[in-house]
Amino acid sequence: MENNNKTLYTITVFSENRVGLLNQITIILNRRQLNIETLSVSPSALKGIHKFTITTYSDHETIEKVVKQIDKRIDILKAYYNTDDELVYQEIALYKIATKHILEKGSIESLIRDHDITVLEITDNAVVFQKTGLYDETQKLFEDLSKTVGVLQFIRSGRVAITRSKVERLSDMLAEREKSIARRKNNQTVKDTTLTD
Amino acid sequence: MTGSYAVLESLKAEGVDTIFGYPGGAIIPIYDALYDYSEIFNHILVRHEQAAAHAAEGYARVSGKPGVVFVTSGPGATNTITGIADAMMDSTPIIVISAQVASPFLGTDAFQETDLLGLTQPITKWSYQIRKAEDIPDAIARAFYIACNGRPGPVVLDITKDALLNTLDYQYKKCDSIRSYIPDPEPEEEDIEQAACIINSAQKPLAVIGQGVLLAHAEEEVKSLLEKAQIPVASTLLGLSALPSDYPLYKGMVGMHGNLGPNFKTNECDVLIAIGMRFSDRVTGNLKTYAKQAKVIHFDIDPSEIGKNVVPTLGVLGNVKETIPLVTEKVKKASHDEWIASFAPLEKREYEHVYVKEVEPSQGPLHMGEVVRHVSDLAGRDAVLVTDVGQNQMMGSRYFRFGKTRSNITSGGLGTMGYGIPAALGAKIGAPERRVCLFLGDGGLQMTLEEFGTIMQDSIGVKIILLNNNKLGMVRQWQELFNHQRYSFTDMANPDFCKIAEAYGIRTARVERREDLDKTIQDMFSDDKAFLLVAECEQMGMVYPMTPAGANVTDVMLEK
Q: Which of B434, B427, B61 lies closest to B215 in space, CA to CA?
């Protein structure tokens, strides 16, 4: 996606589960005037490690520097960025519609089929649809519904994304880091012994 | 034991001997425990918490050990913020321990509560709130590890009052790694190879060293590289004193008020070797024309610095203590006599147009540069230079002669006026055997003047040289040069500074005449006690050479 010659980047951050991490990340984005488009945070596959997925419009030079600054924070394990073509990604959206408007419209079968909608709840007052998809898809449904039956409430999640190229090898990265730390400590011991000799 | 005792035991385990602090409500438990530790810690009671942070910086910069600060919650904590930001910009390891309101009161706008973590996150290397007594030892261990390893920086520990009062089973284990943090990235073989190759191909190499060399204690390693390949070298403001001023390959300081030689040669060299420096805008001027003809090799420990301002031909990530010797091994012996000799005409030009007028004037009022040089000559090679910010800072940096490493203490990145007095007293405590000479202006002196009290109470023998022009000199200089002599609020009606010093029992003298200068300085150095020397200087003095902000490094103004 392009916006004023800027590209939509997805920043992925793995961090220790500490208070205030999001603040540390947003401070860095603020300094470079990057606006968060979407944000999602959740525990990762590894216990005790949280994953942030942030999308923002930026130029390449800025995003590269910003991600390095994020990666530099002590409690952050790894930060990287990707463009859309490197990712498989999805968003989820919920739509609340007045039941009587749907009944007035008659059949909604084609709507459900065309947009691949899941119905989460039906009451006398309202129906809640769920749609997963790309931003444009969930947006299209919102616009279609708004025009035909009206939308009482609408909410869209932040993006969740998985890289196309590699398996998420955070555990490998951590193991490599542990090894590197051990290697460095050994070197240090050798150096120290040389000094005392 | 209680959390308060655990704090002090942990500091003792880290080898801390000096604490700069100021008590207050929330931190009373630590001060109560401190009463039992007077044999172990030298606690310096400052007169304002900002000064505690700057004193810790001065102590750290001169000694290489982290500076430790105690402050109370709320205003005590917020007063340290300038010092913390300063330490962040200049990679100075300080650990600020602030007490916080008891944890049940957090978020309730309790008396003297402030969100110190939220306030300091952007200006600390790490900040952490301790809410349980049992977390104290580990958090302190991490704080020291983080502050001192890799690229150093400030750490804030905010400890709630209940954590200080509750008890714990105390056990201390030093931190030796954190899985989310790589302090010293491992050097890449390929980078080393390529760096050596580029250096070997150079006909006109120029090295620029920054504070990274001092922080890594890599002075000798850098010298070996420079000498083997005969590379002329310049220093950034914060790199000063890593090499002695009379080091044969040393060609002076780069930057806005740096020397002509290295500034011009930056845009003539074919290889620019940047070692532990960060290409600040005060060094580079206009980035679009900065060293464009050169291959740039950037040695740095911090991945986020490489390519931040100048995109190098090659970035060599790692601790320069490690990477530089690896490169030196592969670098061939070389001589660049003609290139090195080509600095001489520029040096001559600067000598004639700037130096003679500033350092060796024969008539008129005293010049700042002249005072600095006379003090430096009489202080000896072992002396430490501390400067405040402004003209005094540039004059100090330009004309003080360094004989020993870790001898330059100044607020470089943040440019904090008021830094001088507290940083100097901290430096004197960090290096009691050395002469500490502080140069400052009448503006900066009055920002932290209250610390005369600290100097008096603890008999701290700093030599304070006030370069008095009764003006905010550097801003006035800019107004003269760039704002059509519209001197907006840069005149100062000043008190009798000597009387103030006398009130604090600090020896003092005023000097106006050139012929009195040396004997007054000699008198100042006749003992190791504090001294205020008020040098009445030329009011309209200017710091030259000057590259205006954002101009090309070669667009240098030499005189009016």
A: B61
